User: Which sequence fits this backbone?
């Protein structure tokens, strides 16, 4: 079985629909739908609004109609936006993409879809982040009920006899994350910002999740961070041979002219990255313009971070 791993397509932002179509065309060119499993790690859409959901569904459905098996888990943008979750958006997303999230399984997480040799298990890393006090910052929170159910599932014979693939949206590792992968040569303030944001974007109950997965999972797939790094070295600390961040396959908020996805061989564990070239380079993004203006590039992220910290302090002290 070959697993196609892509993530964070953010439909609704810029020309992401055209980019997703290019990715899907490239996947279709591989042929052999029965030999592939497509796993999307969430942030399919840029917001939890119906327009974006209809747009992305219209892109995915023709692939499903041609026999491609596509599985999906919800990201924070699918359930709200970058800074908070919205229970109504989350429910709407689950309903709208029910066939891709749950298939023929009961509509609850964790969701297990057995194939001949694989046991993919999907998680909802927004599940426990829908309460008023938990929803801010959209870091992800599985909740103890979901982890307990996962623990039981991992011990079932049908799962243990197969390659176990766990997929979720949020980032589960402690040491390998920051809001920006590299703050460049921006100087003291940029480095201060990078250092101060290392705790953001990591799943709140990542420790419990990793203890649960320890030595029982072959492949761990996630997204959210838009870096696309191979975290297998981190995964191996928990006995997981392969751990991959899907990046943004449509290169949302990334300064690149290539879009991409991975093909993972579930038997050998070999990973190939397929790049699809964009027809022309984008105009410089806001981020790259900032990067070329060191003073602004340093000041704005720090101002944003401390503004947000002050806002959080205000909210939590009410
Ligand atoms: Fe994202
Ligand atoms: Fe995300």
Assistant:
């Amino acid at each position: 079985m070959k697993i196609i791993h892509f993530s964070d397509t953010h439909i609704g932002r810029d020309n992401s629909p055209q980019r997703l179509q290019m990715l899907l065309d490239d996947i279709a060119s591989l042929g052999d739908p029965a030999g592939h499993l497509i796993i999307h790690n969430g942030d399919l859409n840029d917001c939890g609004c119906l327009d974006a959901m209809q747009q992305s569904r219209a892109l995915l459905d023709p692939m499903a109609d041609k026999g491609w098996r596509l599985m999906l888990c919800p990201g924070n943008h699918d359930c709200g936006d970058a800074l908070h979750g919205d229970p109504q958006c989350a429910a709407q997303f689950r309903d709208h993409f029910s066939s891709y999230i749950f298939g023929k399984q009961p509509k609850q997480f964790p969701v297990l879809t057995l194939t001949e040799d694989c046991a993919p298990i999907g998680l909802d890393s927004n599940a426990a982040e829908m309460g008023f006090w938990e929803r801010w910052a959209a870091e992800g929170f599985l909740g103890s009920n979901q982890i307990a159910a996962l623990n039981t599932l991992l011990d079932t014979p049908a799962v243990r006899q197969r390659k176990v693939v766990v997929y979720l949206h949020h980032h589960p590792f402690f040491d390998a994350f920051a809001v920006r992968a590299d703050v460049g040569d921006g100087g003291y303030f940029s480095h201060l910002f990078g250092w101060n944001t290392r705790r953001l974007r990591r799943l709140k109950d990542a420790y419990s999740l990793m203890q649960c997965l320890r030595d029982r999972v072959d492949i761990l797939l996630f997204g959210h961070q838009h870096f696309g790094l191979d975290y297998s070295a981190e995964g191996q600390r928990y006995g997981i041979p392969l751990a991959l961040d899907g990046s943004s396959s449509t290169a949302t908020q990334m300064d690149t002219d290539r879009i991409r996805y991975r093909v993972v061989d579930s038997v050998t564990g070999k990973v190939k990255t397929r790049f699809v070239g964009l027809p022309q380079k984008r105009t410089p993004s806001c981020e790259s313009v900032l990067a070329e203006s060191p003073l602004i590039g340093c000041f704005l992220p720090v101002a944003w971070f401390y503004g947000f910290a002050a806002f959080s302090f205000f909210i939590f002290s009410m």
